Amino acid sequence: IYILGIETSCDETAASVIKNGNEIISNIVASQIQSQQRFGGVVPEIASRHHVEQITLVIEEALSEAGLEPMELDAVAVTEGPGLVGALLIGINAAKAFAFANGLPIIGVHHIAGHIYANQLMQPMEFPLLALIVSGGHTELVLMENHGSFKLIGETRDDAAGEAYDKVARVLGLPYPGGPAIDRLAHESDDAVEFPRAWLELDSYDFSFSGLKSAVINYKHNLEQKGGEVIPAHVAAGFQQSVVEVLTTKTLKAAKEYNVKQVIAAGGVAANKGLRASLEAAFENEGIPFYVPPISLCTDNAAMIAAAGTAMFVDGQRGNMGMNGRPGMSLTSWSK
Ligand code: ATP
Ligand code: MG
Ligand code: FE
Question: Is the Cβ–Cβ distance between 73 and 318 less than 8 Å?
């Protein structure tokens, strides 16, 4: 089975061909990072314009690198939501046009399901499975009892982890996106500022990162008032320690409570070196299999969309030409 995946939900224009749901044949990602750095973040209209310019080229490149003709494909999988509506529509319309022109079925994929299925490109999923999703817009613990079934057991009550990274980076004067920059500084640091941990209620799997963000802002403000010098690396290290400790502790607790066979991490913040090391150590201690994809499959890409799309294709699911962008699409409502 060959599936073409298309992803345009945010700021990466991406297309990929996947064989049998687990083998990457081609994986093209056109990033808009330079233009975002000029504006300090993603501007929806500019993101859409980039997608329009790139989408045809990216699809053509994914096919030519795969060495496949369109008619050798079995279906086109595209991100249906959540994301920026204008950005989503460019991928969806490209997918519709491509599917119609080549007589292929179209499959709509939830972007976060895609992040989770990036793991399927590395090793087969085993259920029950616990997924820690940490991305620019989401921080969730999801229990999967089967392919396509997603039960939300915890989520952020305010900022997503990636959002917190980006905001704290901005406070520290680091370039967008902030995650990689903070990660690097944290690793170079010889000391760490002590920041609070947001545990919330004892039995809650929910998260909160806005208090931590405020703590960083207050720390900087107070120190500057006193004429002290803020050392970005020390702030980065302290912030990262707080995020990583809470994410690791809650994920481990949930994995034990739900007695899962496999734990996976997904989403852009799963690229974080500190988080990867902490989760790997915690689960190795407990003898619970833990996996996280290589960094290029943690951040947005179309291989993950094609992988999730293949699972749906095998399950007999098909979309139709009435497909629309669904900016606020929730994972649980989309679950089987
Ligand atoms: P969503 O997937 O929730 O719709 P998104 O697609 O914008 O949001 P991703 O592309 O999955 O999010 O991830 C981007 C986020 O990951 C950014 O907030 C970025 O700062 C963060 N990120 C990337 N690399 C790292 C890293 N090494 N450490 C921490 N955060 C990182
Ligand atoms: Mg992105
Ligand atoms: Fe994403």
Answer: no
